[in-house]
Amino acid sequence: MEPIVGDLITLKKDDISYEGILIPSPKKDSIVIKLSSGYNIGFKRSSVEITKIKKRQRPKIFPETKFDKKKDLPEISLISTGGTIASRVDYETGGVRWLMKPEEIFFMTPEISDIVSFKNISSPFQIASESMTFECYKILAKEAAKELNSGAKGIIITHGTDTLHYTSSALSFMLQNLSKPVCLVGAQRSPDRGSFDGAMNLIGASYIAAHSDIGEVAIVMHGEMSDTYCNVLRGTKVRKMHSTRRDTFKPINIPPLARVFMNGKIEKLSEYRLRQEENEVYADVEMEEKTAIIKTYPNFNPDIFDYYIDKGYKGLVIEALALGHVPTDTINDKFSWINSIKRATEEGIIIVFSTQCLFGRVNPFVYSNGRIMEEMGVIYVEDMLPETAYIKLSWILGHTNDYSEVKKNMLANLSGELNYRIKGDNSGL
Fold this sequence. Notes:
CATH topology of the largest domain: Rossmann fold
Number of domains: 3
Mean pLDDT: 89
Radius of gyration: 25 Å
Largest sheet: 8 strands, mixed
Strand content: 15-25%
Number of strands: 23
Helix content: 10-25%
């Protein structure tokens, strides 16, 4: 009888046999199995001998795993939101399924039970990170504040990696009076793969959340492709820099805050806000929805600004070129940004320039086009990342539309988002 998806089978090619679970194949003439190592292997059907060992069963995606509280371990809380770290291949469909319970994450990471005790495990929603909205940030901020104020020594938030750095920025601004670690953790590889990185990231985050003296929002992820250590990266100075590498998150214009090794050793690398157990955290979650990011590029037609103006947008972050350049002196006047920026500022829209170079900073006083923009009221935000500037501007505009107040706060270093003196090569490349 022909095996079906989920059956345990062997594939024999020449003198070598491979044993694994049959999974869906993208091509009718091929056959793919999941090896016990977590990796997949596939062949043309006509090139292998197929033998069924055991018919399909319907086990749980993860067995239930319970962690008993240990009195001698510090208590932290976990908030699960979805993403690759909380997913697993469903061998019946070949697709990826979210875990049904956040506790299931720890099936792959039993070591955590010797590092921390969990005060609470919650899952306010389960979505992929590309579907995150401002409303999600508000929910997470309120949940984190509640847990910290009820005695948790720190927080771990599991999250998809695509927009992890947006969420870390949002929580950095929303969690006021924060002086305990809030660690955001993701994975580039799913738990069914042999190269799963989420387990190590969770272990590193557990050490930081419970045993470090860090008192701010940070992303804790692989520091290199191997399993040597995790970097602890400030929530407002970090960016996803590669689509697949496990060490995708890099610090921008500053070093990592620390490194954490799997034996619990924490190596401090730069200054950070220190833990203070007695502080009460409050979630300031007001955000202005009508903000956007616009990228500068050759042949950009500034008529695009008319859309945002006519739709009543309150703030725009421009990913400008290099030091903060946009077209002003053009062969064809229709490509000059001068009239569009002037109209936008006259309509009360706050315009912020950051550099799409990421490393380095903007400076309006080097070339004439920068001076023109600065004189029209454009706010140049030093070395702030475009994503961080977008989140920060949205948060500030949630509190005030006054230009002077917005400019003052955009240029104030509220959560380590500005680095006024960049030392050495902190490119992370």
